[in-house]
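name: query_chain
kind: protein
chains: 1
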Amino acid sequence: MANTSEIKNGLCLNFNNDVWSVVEFLHVKPGKGPAFVRCKLKSMTSGKVVDNTWPSSHKIDVVRVERRKFQFLYQDDMGYHFMNNETYDQTMIDPKLLEKPELIKEGSDVDILFDSEKDMPLTVELPQYMVLQVTYTEPGLKGDTATNAKKPAKLETGAEVQVPLFINEGDLIKIETATSNYVERVKK
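structure:
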């Protein structure tokens, strides 16, 4: 057991019979009345985000989490299959534990967070950026670059993102996984 003074971003805790991760928090010490901690929590199992407020020095149940490196192998109707990079053991992950499954490419390395007491996967964290190939996009019009115009592009993983007009089929582009936004073109 810990108390609310130990809360920080990324901390995992048991709350309402579920494992939650602290997304953001704020210690508040009003001029009048007792101090409290306001938190935004995200469920590690369902992805639901809730706001909660605890009084200062309230006891919280912290969950010990392990981060392990895995490589994405393939996806089928049962789920997503990953291989542990150290032991070569394979594990199947439910699609709801992935935030952006459309951006994951076969052979990509990811981090999987496990509840160390139950050895249960909690969530899959993609790298900050993914480099993917554009498989289809309309050609841009020459001279139509006066504004920051964008066009849709389909990627090798099946995802569709907005890219600048100068991007063509076959180009490699860097995508930010948190927002699914185009970052830059990558040289081959």
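note: DSSP finds no helices and 16 strands in the chain.
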